[in-house]
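hey so i finally got around to running the thing on that chain from the lab meeting. sorry it took forever, my laptop kept dying and i had to restart like 3 times. anyway pasting the input first so we r on the same page abt which one it is
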Amino acid sequence: MNLLTDNALLPGIDRLQASAAVLARGFDHRAELASLELGDARDHAVGLSGLFLIGAVAALLTGFAANFFVAALWWDTPHRLLAIGLAALVQAAVATTSIALCIHRARRWRPLPLTIDQLKKDSQCLRDLLNSPRR
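ok and heres what got predicted. didnt touch it at all, straight out
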């Protein structure tokens, strides 16, 4: 008589095995979903980083060109300092707005939304099962 294979001695072993199989399948499905969403998040981050880098370099070069243009245009006038100061203020406003938008988007972005939603549903289902009366 083997204790591990005799179902009469271990009541509920079939139920435990079935529960373990369901949990293993659920874990596999959630891991696959998380993997897909991580791939999407990586693609999003790489694309956003590339665009940000291109935009930052272009903005830097444009800022240099704009400063040189303003300085050359207003160089022989008594208002050249005012013109360069206004150009600096405009560039500071654009930079501040851009940084604020980046921070806002970063705070609003939620990675892995489907995985998190599914894990919440799984957690609620497990709580309901554990709190249900025994049959």
